[in-house]
Amino acid sequence: MKRRTLLGAGAAVGLGAAVGLKPDRGGVHSDYFLKLSSALDRAGLARPTLVIDKARLEANIDTLTAHLGQDYAYRVVAKSLPSLDLLDLVCKRANTRRLMMFHQPFLNLVAQQMPDSDLLLGKPMPVAAANRFFDHHRGSFDPARQLQWLLDSRERIAQYGELAKQRQLNMQVNLELDVGLHRGGFQDEAELAQALADIEAHPNLNWSGFMGYEPHVAKMPGVLGGPDKAFARAQARYEDFVRVAREQGYSIDGLTLNAAGSPTYQRYTGEQVATELAAGSALVKPTDFDLDSLFDHVPAAFIATPVIKSLPSARTPGIEGLARLQHWLDPNSRQAFFIYGGYWKALPESPPGLAYNSIYGRSTNQEMLTGSSRVQLQADDWVFLRPTQSEHVFLQFGDIVLYDQGDIVTNWPVFSQGA
Length: 419
Fold this sequence. Notes:
Helix content is 32%, strand content 22%. By secondary structure, the protein is an alpha/beta fold. The strands form two sheets. Strands 1, 10, 11, 12, 13, 14, 15, 16 and 17 form a nine-stranded mixed β-sheet that branches. Strands 2-3-4-5-6-7-8-9 form an eight-stranded parallel barrel, surrounded by five helices. Helix 4 (84-94) links the parallel strand 2 (73-77) and strand 3. Helix 8 (154-167) packs parallel to helix 9.
């Protein structure tokens, strides 16, 4: 190579580095996604679809239950797995009937369709929602024994006490504790002692335990002490509240002392005061849960959607003349792929190198993804994205499809938001 050619190439590279020239991240589907694409084609699907990989799901369940061992009971977080069939598989594999519920229509559905379940509310409900639950409750599920309402204040205790009195019900109530998240719940020991006395004064209410949720632990920065210190503080606060209850003369034996969540469940070693741990998202592992604390869990849920249009050059309206410069600065912006649907809480997963175009904008109808010349996608090929979370996202595609041993084997209806 001639010296001036070499110097010219070096200058171009230097200029590219100075202005932010990006490496080519493009590629093609791995064998896994090629097989999944073929399975979707054989199933005759041609629309945005939420896919769950059964083998990966079961591996995550086994990982979770192995960590819990005999030290803690497992409560399945239903909002993260919003399908009766999905919950049934998880409960059977994990050998549990404990679920955590967050939405009144879902609560009614699960109580009717899973009548042997043990349900704990994961957030305080307006008393009108509790009233509506009883208006619509049908079946053999016994709320007095199998349902715990979560209460976060003395005002709610009074409201629920009045509801129980009016309807002549016995209601179990679990108290939400603030162990560091600061999203409500009891944080003052004296107020908690008075709350327990309030429950005692309502003959139709029965105190069933505590819930202390600490998702902030996993993301606590080192400058503030890091996750280890935050977890220790949360456990100390939980133990303080349990001590208050004991000092008031209450027995803790047999109560539901709920804690954890997907980001923190593996921190529990059997030495903590909690009797059960809750998790849901860890079983399908959306991208928000790509955490060190879940390193041994694998992604088990994907959004699959067809390519509608494959264009050899990505161009932005009004600045078409800058397309070549854009492609040079970022080779991953070279091609444009418009997909069926879009604007989900999700990140492109396969083929590698796809990205949203912030200049072109987002769309729920035909989302643009860009990629380098290494991305080989034609119209009707499949693109795969990973949800950033499972709650709500799982409800946007109609039936979930289950992928197992190279084929789509069944469809699972999801919950309905209203009833």
